[in-house]
Write a structure and sequence with these properties.
alpha+beta; TIM Barrel; Glucose Permease (Domain IIA); 2 domains; ten-stranded antiparallel beta sheet; eight-stranded mixed barrel; 12 helices; 23% helix; elongated
């Protein structure tokens, strides 16, 4: 049998992956599920970061569902930035309507790189060709990632005469993965794989004009947030009278950690006065994540801001009643959630931190733990950051 370059494709179903062991086992590339409709695969950011850190080339794929195609493209492209391989569209159910699929493919191509199509011969030939004659246009314009098992060469769907990637089993076993996994081949030599790279995606939304950009505290009344007092009103940082940033403490699991930002509390006039209080976007930006991360972080929102040529990410954790979704533009002072609590029975407070790296883009649950150097590398003191970057208007 021909010696093809080996790879795999994964999603949250594979759970936690030891990517270094995957790399050491000889797997060169991975396609990672990024999104389905407007949702983000729960393990995407962890997997894409893990693959990158291990030196595994990665690409992102999207599972199309009926609905707003433009919104699905925007969401997918925001996740796929930084990928090594072309974007892919999963077409394997009858609600992947060809007209919508074609619109998705064309929009992604216009804004990045020509995508590839993942499908099975049985589905493509039995459903798409008879019901959607225009599917022939897709096979002439886009390269193929074919699923075909237990064969020495894959059977191709009608109108295709070559494959780029071949998913040859869905029952693979790989060191570093504790479940069955889809295994794939690349059709060319390894050098060719490095040449089908993914062109960087232009921003979906124009950067916020820096002349009006500024940062307020994410809690407090309107007048309190506009005042010079930090933290505003009766709000305090639970870990330190001035700043809890980089303070050493013992977390709920009994582990020593250094705090990445502030735990903002308000216990006046009564204890837990902060419960259900509004949480506001600290500055203009774009929501990059809004969802649940386990039982400790609970609901988390991250917002990307631009300051000149620099990226700033703010994180708002342990929140309830999220009012925003990924890829939504927000303005300074816009309510995005309410104050919730950490863990099953933790105290009410807002975890708020500020990062000047992309760590929170790829992993909104990023936590250096006992690595103080990691805290200082990825986070800045939020009270000092806000103090130095107050709004000019």
């Amino acid at each position: 049998m021909t010696e093809y370059v080996r790879g795999l494709d994964i999603s949250h179903w594979q759970g936690r992956i030891d990517w270094q062991r995957v790399k050491d086992a000889g797997y060169v590339f991975a396609y990672i599920k990024a999104s389905e409709a407007l949702g983000t695969d729960s393990m995407f950011r962890t997997n894409s970061l893990g693959a990158r850190n291990a030196g595994v080339l990665w690409g992102a794929y999207h599972f199309l569902r009926p609905g707003n195609t433009q919104a699905q493209v925007n969401h997918f492209l925001s996740l796929a930035q930084g990928a090594d391989l072309p974007p892919a569209l999963d077409v394997e159910t009858t609600d992947n309507f060809v007209g919508q699929a074609e619109a998705w493919l064309q929009e992604v191509e216009a804004r990045s790189t020509a995508p590839i199509i993942y499908t099975r011969r049985s589905f493509w030939d039995s459903w798409l060709n008879p019901n959607m004659p225009q599917s022939r246009n897709l096979s002439s314009r886009y390269r193929l990632w074919v699923a075909n098992y237990e064969r020495e060469v894959p059977l191709l769907p009608r109108n295709w005469n070559a494959w780029l990637f071949w998913q040859y089993t869905d029952k693979g076993r790989v060191l570093g993965i504790n479940s069955n996994v889809d295994l794939n081949y690349f059709s060319g030599p390894a050098e060719q794989l490095f040449n089908i790279n993914y062109k960087p995606v232009p921003p979906v939304v124009e950067p916020v004009p820096t002349s009006t950009l500024g940062f307020d505290a994410p809690i407090g009344t309107f007048d309190e947030r506009r005042s010079l007092q930090l933290w505003p009103g009766d709000w305090i940082d639970a870990w330190h009278p001035r700043s809890g940033y980089a303070q050493k403490y013992t977390d709920s699991a009994g582990h020593t950690s250094y705090h990445t930002g502030a735990d903002l509390n308000k216990n006046k006039p009564v204890w837990d006065s902060d419960r259900g209080s509004p949480v506001y976007a600290a500055s203009d930006g774009i929501v990059r994540f809004a969802g649940r991360i386990g039982n400790y972080w609970r609901n988390v929102i991250t917002i990307e801001h631009h300051l000149g040529n620099s990226i700033v990410i703010t994180r708002y954790a342990h929140v309830d009643n999220m009012l925003v979704s990924a890829e939504q533009s927000v303005t300074r002072g816009q309510q995005i959630a309410t104050v919730g609590h950490s863990g099953p029975n933790g105290p009410y407070h807002l975890h708020f931190d500020v990062s000047l790296t992309t760590a929170l883009l790829f992993n909104p649950g990023h936590w250096p733990g006992s690595n103080l150097a990691g805290v200082r590398e990825h986070y800045v003191d939020p009270i000092e950051w806000i103090r130095a970057h107050r709004p000019t208007v």
